[in-house]
Amino acid sequence: MASSFPVYLGEVGLRINNTLTSICSHLPQNSLIPPIVHTLEGGKRFRGFLVIESARLFGINGKTSEYVAAAIECLHAYSLVHDDLPCMDDDPIRRGKPTIHVKWNEMTAVLVGDALQTLAFEILSDKNHIPDPKIRAELVFALAQASGVSGMVYGQMLDMEAESNPDGATFDDITTLQQNKTGKLIGFSCEAGAILGRSDPTNLLGYAACLGLAFQIADDLLDITGNVEDVGKTLDKDSSQGKHTFVSLLGVEGARNTARQQVDEAISYLDPYGPKANMLIEAARFAITRSR
Description:
Blueprint: H1 5-25, H2 33-40, H3 46-56, H4 63-83, E1 93-94, E2 97-98, H5 100-103, H6 106-124, H7 133-147, H8 152-162, H9 171-196, H10 202-225, H11 228-231, H12 237-240, H13 246-268, H14 278-287
Antiparallel strand pairs: 1-2
Protein backbone atom coordinates (compact mmCIF):
# COMPACT_ATOMS: atom_id res chain seq x y z
CA MET A 1 0.00 0.00 0.00
CA ALA A 2 2.73 2.48 1.01
CA SER A 3 4.62 2.09 -2.27
CA SER A 4 1.46 2.78 -4.28
CA PHE A 5 0.42 5.83 -2.27
CA PRO A 6 2.46 8.38 -4.29
CA VAL A 7 0.80 7.01 -7.44
CA TYR A 8 -2.65 7.38 -5.89
CA LEU A 9 -1.79 10.88 -4.66
CA GLY A 10 -0.71 11.75 -8.18
CA GLU A 11 -3.98 10.45 -9.63
CA VAL A 12 -6.03 12.54 -7.21
CA GLY A 13 -3.74 15.49 -7.88
CA LEU A 14 -4.44 15.18 -11.60
CA ARG A 15 -8.17 15.42 -10.92
CA ILE A 16 -7.58 18.57 -8.87
CA ASN A 17 -5.34 20.01 -11.60
CA ASN A 18 -8.04 19.43 -14.19
CA THR A 19 -10.57 21.20 -11.99
CA LEU A 20 -8.21 24.14 -11.47
CA THR A 21 -7.56 24.34 -15.22
CA SER A 22 -11.30 24.40 -15.90
CA ILE A 23 -11.85 27.12 -13.29
CA CYS A 24 -9.01 29.27 -14.68
CA SER A 25 -10.30 28.84 -18.23
CA HIS A 26 -13.59 30.48 -17.20
CA LEU A 27 -11.94 33.49 -15.56
CA PRO A 28 -11.57 36.79 -17.45
CA GLN A 29 -8.41 36.30 -19.49
CA ASN A 30 -6.52 39.36 -18.29
CA SER A 31 -2.90 39.94 -17.24
CA LEU A 32 -3.43 38.24 -13.87
CA ILE A 33 -4.09 34.84 -15.41
CA PRO A 34 -0.56 33.87 -16.59
CA PRO A 35 1.02 34.41 -13.14
CA ILE A 36 -1.96 32.71 -11.47
CA VAL A 37 -1.50 29.65 -13.70
CA HIS A 38 2.25 29.74 -13.03
CA THR A 39 1.57 29.79 -9.29
CA LEU A 40 -0.91 26.92 -9.38
CA GLU A 41 1.36 24.63 -11.43
CA GLY A 42 3.22 21.96 -9.49
CA GLY A 43 2.85 20.99 -5.85
CA LYS A 44 1.72 17.76 -4.24
CA ARG A 45 -1.97 18.77 -3.92
CA PHE A 46 -1.77 17.24 -0.45
CA ARG A 47 -4.37 19.55 1.08
CA GLY A 48 -6.75 18.98 -1.81
CA PHE A 49 -6.18 15.25 -1.47
CA LEU A 50 -7.19 15.45 2.21
CA VAL A 51 -10.46 17.15 1.21
CA ILE A 52 -11.31 14.46 -1.32
CA GLU A 53 -10.36 11.53 0.90
CA SER A 54 -12.08 12.88 4.01
CA ALA A 55 -15.24 13.45 1.95
CA ARG A 56 -14.99 9.90 0.60
CA LEU A 57 -15.34 8.59 4.16
CA PHE A 58 -18.94 9.80 4.03
CA GLY A 59 -19.73 8.62 0.52
CA ILE A 60 -19.07 12.01 -1.10
CA ASN A 61 -17.33 11.60 -4.45
CA GLY A 62 -17.14 13.48 -7.71
CA LYS A 63 -16.93 17.14 -8.62
CA THR A 64 -18.23 18.71 -5.42
CA SER A 65 -15.27 17.61 -3.32
CA GLU A 66 -12.93 18.43 -6.23
CA TYR A 67 -14.14 22.03 -6.21
CA VAL A 68 -13.49 22.29 -2.47
CA ALA A 69 -10.06 20.75 -3.06
CA ALA A 70 -9.41 23.37 -5.75
CA ALA A 71 -10.42 26.12 -3.32
CA ILE A 72 -7.95 25.06 -0.63
CA GLU A 73 -5.20 24.76 -3.24
CA CYS A 74 -5.89 28.35 -4.35
CA LEU A 75 -5.81 29.55 -0.75
CA HIS A 76 -2.59 27.63 -0.09
CA ALA A 77 -1.01 28.99 -3.28
CA TYR A 78 -1.86 32.55 -2.22
CA SER A 79 -0.13 31.98 1.11
CA LEU A 80 3.02 30.77 -0.67
CA VAL A 81 3.12 33.76 -3.02
CA HIS A 82 2.93 36.21 -0.13
CA ASP A 83 5.29 34.14 2.04
CA ASP A 84 7.92 34.35 -0.71
CA LEU A 85 7.77 38.15 -1.01
CA PRO A 86 10.93 40.19 -0.27
CA CYS A 87 9.26 41.68 2.83
CA MET A 88 8.63 38.18 4.20
CA ASP A 89 10.94 35.21 3.42
CA ASP A 90 12.34 36.66 0.16
CA ASP A 91 12.49 33.35 -1.72
CA PRO A 92 13.48 33.20 -5.41
CA ILE A 93 12.27 29.61 -5.99
CA ARG A 94 8.99 27.82 -5.29
CA ARG A 95 7.94 24.42 -6.62
CA GLY A 96 11.15 24.37 -8.64
CA LYS A 97 10.32 27.57 -10.55
CA PRO A 98 10.97 31.30 -10.11
CA THR A 99 8.62 32.90 -7.61
CA ILE A 100 6.13 35.48 -8.89
CA HIS A 101 8.02 38.55 -7.69
CA VAL A 102 11.14 37.23 -9.47
CA LYS A 103 9.50 36.18 -12.75
CA TRP A 104 7.18 39.22 -12.85
CA ASN A 105 7.51 41.80 -10.06
CA GLU A 106 6.55 42.44 -6.45
CA MET A 107 3.35 44.33 -7.34
CA THR A 108 2.16 41.38 -9.43
CA ALA A 109 2.94 38.96 -6.61
CA VAL A 110 0.84 40.93 -4.12
CA LEU A 111 -2.10 41.12 -6.53
CA VAL A 112 -1.86 37.47 -7.60
CA GLY A 113 -1.95 36.45 -3.94
CA ASP A 114 -5.00 38.64 -3.38
CA ALA A 115 -6.68 37.19 -6.47
CA LEU A 116 -6.04 33.59 -5.43
CA GLN A 117 -7.37 34.21 -1.93
CA THR A 118 -10.63 35.67 -3.21
CA LEU A 119 -10.88 32.99 -5.90
CA ALA A 120 -10.87 30.33 -3.16
CA PHE A 121 -13.98 31.88 -1.60
CA GLU A 122 -15.58 32.43 -5.02
CA ILE A 123 -15.25 28.70 -5.70
CA LEU A 124 -16.76 27.73 -2.35
CA SER A 125 -19.67 30.16 -2.61
CA ASP A 126 -20.69 29.19 -6.16
CA LYS A 127 -24.00 27.31 -6.10
CA ASN A 128 -23.02 25.56 -9.32
CA HIS A 129 -20.13 23.94 -7.46
CA ILE A 130 -21.83 23.26 -4.13
CA PRO A 131 -25.65 23.24 -4.42
CA ASP A 132 -26.54 23.18 -0.70
CA PRO A 133 -26.49 26.77 0.68
CA LYS A 134 -25.93 25.64 4.27
CA ILE A 135 -22.89 23.59 3.30
CA ARG A 136 -21.55 26.49 1.20
CA ALA A 137 -21.86 28.82 4.19
CA GLU A 138 -20.20 26.36 6.57
CA LEU A 139 -17.29 25.81 4.19
CA VAL A 140 -16.75 29.55 3.66
CA PHE A 141 -16.85 30.19 7.42
CA ALA A 142 -14.48 27.31 8.19
CA LEU A 143 -11.95 28.39 5.57
CA ALA A 144 -12.11 32.02 6.71
CA GLN A 145 -11.36 30.95 10.28
CA ALA A 146 -8.55 28.64 9.20
CA SER A 147 -6.86 31.17 6.94
CA GLY A 148 -7.15 34.52 8.71
CA VAL A 149 -6.50 36.15 12.06
CA SER A 150 -7.37 32.91 13.88
CA GLY A 151 -5.25 30.69 11.64
CA MET A 152 -2.70 30.78 8.86
CA VAL A 153 -2.14 34.56 8.70
CA TYR A 154 -1.67 34.65 12.47
CA GLY A 155 0.88 31.85 12.11
CA GLN A 156 2.68 33.89 9.44
CA MET A 157 2.80 36.84 11.85
CA LEU A 158 4.28 34.66 14.57
CA ASP A 159 6.85 33.40 12.06
CA MET A 160 7.91 36.94 11.16
CA GLU A 161 8.07 37.97 14.81
CA ALA A 162 10.31 34.97 15.54
CA GLU A 163 13.06 36.55 13.43
CA SER A 164 13.45 39.36 15.98
CA ASN A 165 13.33 37.02 18.97
CA PRO A 166 15.40 33.96 17.99
CA ASP A 167 16.45 33.15 21.58
CA GLY A 168 12.97 33.23 23.09
CA ALA A 169 11.30 30.38 21.19
CA THR A 170 10.30 27.28 23.14
CA PHE A 171 8.83 24.01 21.90
CA ASP A 172 5.36 25.30 22.81
CA ASP A 173 6.01 28.56 20.93
CA ILE A 174 7.00 26.70 17.77
CA THR A 175 4.07 24.31 18.13
CA THR A 176 1.63 27.23 18.40
CA LEU A 177 3.23 28.91 15.38
CA GLN A 178 3.03 25.82 13.21
CA GLN A 179 -0.43 24.78 14.38
CA ASN A 180 -1.59 28.07 12.87
CA LYS A 181 0.75 28.60 9.91
CA THR A 182 0.56 25.03 8.59
CA GLY A 183 -1.93 23.15 10.71
CA LYS A 184 -5.07 25.24 10.30
CA LEU A 185 -5.29 24.77 6.52
CA ILE A 186 -4.67 21.04 6.92
CA GLY A 187 -7.41 21.11 9.57
CA PHE A 188 -9.85 22.75 7.16
CA SER A 189 -8.96 20.20 4.48
CA CYS A 190 -10.05 17.36 6.73
CA GLU A 191 -12.99 19.17 8.32
CA ALA A 192 -14.33 19.97 4.84
CA GLY A 193 -15.03 16.30 4.20
CA ALA A 194 -17.18 16.08 7.32
CA ILE A 195 -19.01 19.29 6.38
CA LEU A 196 -19.77 17.89 2.92
CA GLY A 197 -20.91 14.66 4.56
CA ARG A 198 -22.99 16.46 7.23
CA SER A 199 -21.05 14.59 9.91
CA ASP A 200 -19.21 15.29 13.16
CA PRO A 201 -15.66 16.48 12.32
CA THR A 202 -14.13 15.78 15.75
CA ASN A 203 -12.05 12.75 14.80
CA LEU A 204 -10.90 14.26 11.53
CA LEU A 205 -9.84 17.45 13.31
CA GLY A 206 -7.84 15.37 15.79
CA TYR A 207 -6.21 13.52 12.90
CA ALA A 208 -5.45 16.81 11.16
CA ALA A 209 -3.90 18.44 14.23
CA CYS A 210 -1.38 15.61 14.62
CA LEU A 211 -0.83 15.34 10.88
CA GLY A 212 -0.15 19.08 10.61
CA LEU A 213 2.61 18.93 13.22
CA ALA A 214 4.15 15.83 11.64
CA PHE A 215 4.01 17.51 8.21
CA GLN A 216 5.77 20.63 9.52
CA ILE A 217 8.45 18.62 11.30
CA ALA A 218 9.08 16.83 8.02
CA ASP A 219 9.40 20.22 6.30
CA ASP A 220 11.93 21.30 8.95
CA LEU A 221 13.90 18.10 8.36
CA LEU A 222 13.83 18.59 4.58
CA ASP A 223 15.11 22.14 5.07
CA ILE A 224 18.22 20.61 6.64
CA THR A 225 18.61 17.22 4.94
CA GLY A 226 16.88 17.66 1.55
CA ASN A 227 18.16 18.98 -1.76
CA VAL A 228 16.88 21.89 -3.83
CA GLU A 229 16.03 19.72 -6.85
CA ASP A 230 13.65 17.51 -4.87
CA VAL A 231 12.23 20.09 -2.48
CA GLY A 232 11.83 22.79 -5.12
CA LYS A 233 12.64 25.77 -2.90
CA THR A 234 15.56 27.43 -1.14
CA LEU A 235 16.82 25.34 1.77
CA ASP A 236 18.25 26.20 5.19
CA LYS A 237 16.31 29.47 5.22
CA ASP A 238 15.08 29.28 8.81
CA SER A 239 18.49 28.84 10.42
CA SER A 240 20.00 31.56 8.20
CA GLN A 241 17.25 33.92 9.44
CA GLY A 242 17.86 32.95 13.07
CA LYS A 243 14.57 31.10 13.54
CA HIS A 244 14.13 28.12 15.80
CA THR A 245 12.49 25.02 14.34
CA PHE A 246 11.57 21.60 15.67
CA VAL A 247 14.93 20.36 14.37
CA SER A 248 16.96 23.13 16.02
CA LEU A 249 15.26 22.39 19.36
CA LEU A 250 15.04 18.59 19.21
CA GLY A 251 17.87 17.62 16.86
CA VAL A 252 17.37 15.53 13.74
CA GLU A 253 16.63 12.24 15.50
CA GLY A 254 14.48 13.86 18.17
CA ALA A 255 12.44 15.60 15.48
CA ARG A 256 12.02 12.34 13.55
CA ASN A 257 10.84 10.53 16.67
CA THR A 258 8.37 13.30 17.47
CA ALA A 259 7.03 13.19 13.91
CA ARG A 260 6.54 9.41 14.15
CA GLN A 261 4.66 9.83 17.44
CA GLN A 262 2.39 12.44 15.85
CA VAL A 263 1.68 10.12 12.91
CA ASP A 264 0.78 7.24 15.25
CA GLU A 265 -1.60 9.49 17.16
CA ALA A 266 -3.10 10.84 13.92
CA ILE A 267 -3.82 7.32 12.70
CA SER A 268 -5.53 6.42 15.99
CA TYR A 269 -8.19 9.06 15.29
CA LEU A 270 -9.17 7.17 12.13
CA ASP A 271 -10.13 3.93 13.91
CA PRO A 272 -13.89 4.60 13.72
CA TYR A 273 -13.76 4.72 9.91
CA GLY A 274 -12.20 1.28 9.38
CA PRO A 275 -10.77 0.37 5.95
CA LYS A 276 -12.36 3.44 4.35
CA ALA A 277 -9.59 5.49 5.99
CA ASN A 278 -6.69 3.45 4.54
CA MET A 279 -5.55 6.22 2.21
CA LEU A 280 -5.68 8.80 4.98
CA ILE A 281 -3.51 6.45 7.05
CA GLU A 282 -1.05 6.21 4.18
CA ALA A 283 -1.16 9.99 3.80
CA ALA A 284 -0.01 10.38 7.40
CA ARG A 285 2.87 7.99 6.85
CA PHE A 286 3.77 9.68 3.58
CA ALA A 287 3.87 13.08 5.30
CA ILE A 288 7.09 12.15 7.12
CA THR A 289 8.76 10.01 4.44
CA ARG A 290 8.38 12.35 1.43
CA SER A 291 11.35 13.98 -0.29
CA ARG A 292 9.58 17.25 -1.13
